[in-house]
Design brief:
With about 250 residues, the protein is an alpha/beta fold. The chain is about 50% helix and about 15% strand. α3 packs across α4 and α5 runs antiparallel to α6.
Length: about 250
């Protein structure tokens, strides 16, 4: 009987611990600028995340906040953005959000940079334990991508890359010979690209600029940054999609 009582107490403690951990992960409410920022927050086990820019927007940074967003921002514990979304700057000013409640993150899907960025966010939000669990998954996927890149011998493939995908493509080992965008592709850049005659064009789906340079003999790849399109939800979904798009993952 005593053994059953002890086991029951242990079980209750375990259940209580799980419940406490679950509560801790959801006791922060966040307004995130975009799905990219929101996915970084959700990687830390935080579930009360409201993303302002609609997932349907091809370039979410162009969203213009609505009056209702002011109250949403005021009600949240934190407003988190990446620095290039003008609507958040305007929203913070309009709502007079205290500086300590506004967090800035760095968005880049190159796994080493992504891990560092989410780690910094975890430190700000007190979510180091949740980050450690997520980071294991990220590293495992990164290892798969690296293995795929090695098998494809990406170092022997010359690439013209849209600027927003440059760090990820270089991390994969491609021989990047031209970087175009995200600003206007000038005649000089077009001349540079034609002269370089890259093996592949690797574009950014959210601000595509490279389709005109694709030819029958030159593969064209369109990679994601923001989760949402093409059945992606999480940061890892985006990395898997991009790896499959490039033929580096099955």
């Amino acid at each position: 009987m005593k053994r059953l009582t002890v086991m029951f107490v242990i079980l209750m403690l375990l259940v209580g611990g799980i419940a406490a951990a679950s509560a801790a992960a959801s006791d922060i409410s966040v307004v995130a600028s975009t799905t990219w920022v929101g996915a970084m927050v959700e990687a830390l086990g935080i579930t009360d995340v409201l993303v302002l820019a609609p997932v349907e927007l091809r370039h979410p940074a162009e969203y213009d906040f609505r009056p209702r967003d002011i109250q949403l921002a005021l009600d949240a514990d934190y407003v988190i953005w990446a620095g290039y979304e003008p609507f958040i700057r305007n929203l913070v000013e309009a709502a007079n959000i205290p500086e300590e409640q506004v967090l800035l993150v760095h968005t880049n899907n190159s796994p080493p940079i992504l891990e560092e960025s989410v780690a910094q966010l975890a430190a700000s939000l007190g979510r180091e334990e949740q980050f450690a669990q997520w980071a294991e998954q990220l590293r495992a996927l990164a290892a798969e991508l690296e293995a795929g890149a090695a098998a494809a011998d990406t170092a022997s493939i010359t690439a013209a890359v849209q600027g927003h995908q440059e760090r990820f493509v270089r991390w994969l080992g491609y021989d990047v010979v031209v970087v175009y965008g995200p600003g206007e592709v000038t005649p000089g850049k077009i001349t540079e690209l034609v002269a370089a005659d890259p093996d592949v064009i690797i574009d950014n789906w959210h601000s595509a600029q490279g389709e005109a340079f694709a030819q029958d003999r030159r593969p064209y790849y369109s990679l994601l940054n923001f989760p949402g399109p093409r059945d992606t939800v999480t940061l890892l979904d985006v990395l898997r999609h991009n790896g499959r798009e490039l033929g580096l993952l099955e």
